[in-house]
Amino acid sequence: MILPGQAAFAQATSPNTPTANPTAPAQIDAMPTTPSPTPEPAEPAPPEAAATTNGDADIVVTGIRASLASSAKIKRESVLIVDSVSAEDVGKLPDVSIADSLARLPGVTAQRLEGRDQRLSIRGLGPDFSTTLLNGREQVTVGDNRGVEYDQYPSEFFRNVNVYKSADASLIAAGISGTVDLRMLRPLEQSGRIFAINARGQMNGIDNLNPDSSRYGYRASATYVDKFLDNTLGIAIGVSATQAPSQNERYNAWGYAGSGTAASPFVLGGAKPYVQSNELKRYGAVGTVEWAPSDNFHSTFDALYSHFEETQLLRGIEFPLGFSDPAQSGLTVADGFATATTFTNVFAVQRNDYNQRKAENLSLGWNNDLKLTDSIHFNVDASWSRATRTDFLLETNTGTGFGKSGVADRVTVTKNGNGTYKIVPTLDYTNTNTFKLTDPQGWGNNGTTAVVQAGFLNQPSFKDDLKSLRASLNGEFEGSIVKGWEAGANYSRREKTSAYKSYFLCPKGAGTGCTVTSGTPTSLAVPADALLGKNVALDYLGIPAMLTYDPLAVYANALTPAFDNRPSALVRDNRVIENVYTGYAKLNIDGELGGKALKGALGVQVIRSDQRSVGQIASVVNSVVTIAPADQTEKYTDILPSGTMSVELIDGGYVKLGASQTMVRPRLDQERVTQDVSINLPNIGRTPAGLFPVFSSTGGNVALRPYKSINMDISTEKYFDGGGYVALSGYFKRLTDFVDPNNTYAFDFTSLLGALTPAQRATVLAAGQNIGNVSAPANTGRGEVLGVEATLSLPFKKLTSALDGFGMFASGNYTDSTIKFANSPEPITLPGLSKWTGSGTVYFEKWGFQARANYRYRSSFLAEVAGLSATPTYRTAKAEGILDAQIGYEFQEGVLRGFSILAQAKNLTDRPFVTYQNNDPRQVIDYQRYGRDYYIGLTYKF
């Protein structure tokens, strides 16, 4: 379905013109009678085409109401269960972002990161269980794994986005939860030459929290579409530029000491509060060339390029409290929590950090369709998707002295009603005579000896490359309910390279490797020219101000790097290569059965997978690091059947059924071969070897198989005369081969025997102790997902003509799941699963005016967040409700015709993102407040 406020495209295709099959973009339907599982929307009809008569006056129906009419048509004619969002017009922003729009669809929810909707969950299953396509082709990602971060795609470039919730044999790389297909504009489907310009300003409701940041941003785009050579050659070109700020009052707790009783209440173990200012800069371009010189040949070339840079400024103070050694006094206790505590002998770590992320995404696709006979088409599709990303993650520390040797602080901590804590120190944290560049807690250690860690630098880089080639034939049968057939093959090669560099940063001066024993200075004054002159306030936590300087200037002029060669750092580099061969065939059904209209498809996929990982294993013995290469390959075959059916039982009333087996590959970091090895020398020669291992390790598992799911889907839909519909859908998924991230398996560590003496090696081999245990993921889990969705699209003119122009769109979803691992009888919570989700939109559109308000809700869920050293970790996120609104006007007549203005507001509820631990909402870990965002935009199309 298409969301309110996002006008649909009404395709004008002659009966003899082939139309693209959206579930298999490399295909062209042989005949218009061959049913397409999901009819493709096309360009907007001109206003006069949408005119209806009310009495003696013509009323132009465009925008929201036209989108709902097209939405009902797409859903009604689809065999698959699919929902969609579409642009209001060529080059016109459908929403603040693609993810914002998708999060309003039934059963689709978004997780906010840095204040933006980035990761999607479909039907209770997180981002790892869906796949993302661009024009039907699988896409790489700039993220650490497979899940696509949707803010890498400028939303201006897409005419619509489809979310397939059931499977079809021609849908390559379908997900378990669903498949998101981003669709670019097709120039030959447009009515003529189009030039559209958009410009929008943005302001965050929170003033800039850091003095070297801004709360203002912009977004601009331009689109040009034209046709040549008697409408046989079409081009579409788009460019986009974005500078989007965000502010974040960010509170983080280490956790809670104690047991939650009156005698041992929960005491704040430590806190790491920051103020964070982000700025996202993104520049993008797209181009499409479409050529159809005759009815027998059609060729389309697509290109998309996106470059973005995100800069984060983070300033805050890390307080080691209940988990460390400060003395506690003055406790007041309520409900098992220390609501007020005074800590003395506190040595806080003051942080001025700078993070920058640069990424580029390039996607190319070339599709060629040749009509061999009146009923058979041959199609070839080639594509290349490539993403690169580099991070610069800089931490700098100041304190009163090295290793708790400076002036201690006295801190009063008071529990707030929202689960955070007010932290009031005694020291003046802006005093440059007291606070120096140093390692206040003495945390620095290179694995063998202490280092002065006045800062730390992480510089990971990622490259994701996917090439694909697809060929297929499709045609039709005569005189049978089985109307058409399709068969094809697809080859894809994906290679993801992850490379990491990290450095300890210490004060400049004597010493080597930042080690304490070599004479490295333990502290250094902050350079005066690095100070910004205005100190950051942490008053939302009770801290009046903190020392504020330019971390890049300090890094360049006051700190010395020392390479981090700990085994855990060295083994992170890896490559994962996947060669996948897919063959498929299906039959299309279109006819009558028992006097009822019947459409559907039966098909099967056969998938041969060849996955490989290259990396290294590393260990440390007697302060000597040993590295050995690692290379492993795994091959396997899967067979995935599927079937869909749609029956019109009553006029405008449909029952749609789907049954399929689908799969989705595990996280790429779980497929890595790398190992971080621990060698226990005292166990050498002890028996039995299984009880006294010499080698143990943590790492990945190249032999991981995909998650699999047997899916059953049913949808009942009733469409109203004059517009609107009601739909009720149910789904059941039987999950197998679910990946347990904490499993163990046996591994041969012979390649690391070089770390031992000759005598030790001989003893280990004689005792069979070269075999050890690896803690790594494995396919030991299984479970079930059961859910129901309801949708109502209702134009209020069906209730009374007095409400013409008003309407609503509402959806709700309930999902329940049970997942168990072989080594644990206790069920787990699925990442990204909210049992209850819902969205409601009310709108008005008439006489060029448009107004809309949308509220979306999701219950608590397991969220993936950044943990220690940016490692992904999971915590329970609290329920949240987000209110967005917009109002606009489009000039209908005169010289301003084609000109429109739009005002938008996002997160009007100012809802924070909150996580907690141990299934106890009182034990808040993260509390991030992003504030409201306001936008005003102008569009001109001619």
TrEMBL record:
Pfam families, sorted: Plug
Predominant subcellular localization, coarse grouping: membrane
Compositionally biased residues, Low complexity: 12-26
Keywords, ordered alphabetically: Cell outer membrane, Membrane, Receptor
Domain TonB-dependent receptor plug, residue spans: 76-175
Keyword field contains Membrane: yes
Region called Disordered, residue ranges: 1-54
Family matches, as InterPro entries: Beta-barrel_TonB_sf, Plug_dom, Plug_dom_sf, TonB_rcpt_bac
Biased segments, Pro residues type: 34-47
Entry-linked SUPFAM superfamilies: Porins
Subcellular location: Cell outer membrane
GO cellular component: cell outer membrane
PANTHER family listed in its UniProt record: PLUG DOMAIN-CONTAINING PROTEIN, TONB-DEPENDENT RECEPTOR-LIKE BETA-BARREL DOMAIN-CONTAINING PROTEIN
Name of this protein: TonB-dependent receptor
Annotated organism of origin: Sphingomonas ginsenosidivorax
Lineage: Bacteria, Pseudomonadati, Pseudomonadota, Alphaproteobacteria, Sphingomonadales
